[in-house]
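G., the chain you wanted modeled:
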Amino acid sequence: MTEQDSTAAAPAAESLLLFGGRRFHVIDLSQRLSNDTSAIEPMPHAIEYFDHRDTVPLVEEKFGLGAAHWRDGLVWAHERVTLTTHSGTHIDAPYHYHPTSGGQPARTTFEMLVDSSLCSITMFCTSWPGSRICSSV
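Predicted structure as C-alpha cells:
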C-alpha cells in the first residue's frame, strides 16, 4: 500500500482504503490456491475435488440417505483442502523465524495487530530464475 494525497480524485478503477484519516491505494497481491501453485511451495498444499457422485457413499454413511433420496441421484460437490501456514498469501509473524525476538517470546500471527500490517512495504519478486528485491515503498 502506498499513501495517497487525500485531496486527489482517484480514478474509478483504483481501490482506496481509508485508514486513520488517510487514503491508501490498495494493490491486491493475493495468490489463488490451486494444485498448480503447490509445486512451488516448500510445504505444499493439496486440493482434492469431489463431484456430485463421489460424495454419495459419504452421505449414505453419515446420514443414511442413499442416491435415491437426492434429485437425479446426485449429492453435493465439495473440496478437501490441506494447507500449511505457508500456503498462499500470508504474513510471516516473528514466531515463524524463531521462538524469541529481542529476548522476549516472539509474536504469533494471532498476537499481531492488523494495523501493524498497514505500513511501508518491500516487494520481493520471486519469479524464477532467482529472487530479488524489486522495490520498497
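Helices lie at 35-38, 56-63, 94-97.

Shout if anything looks off.
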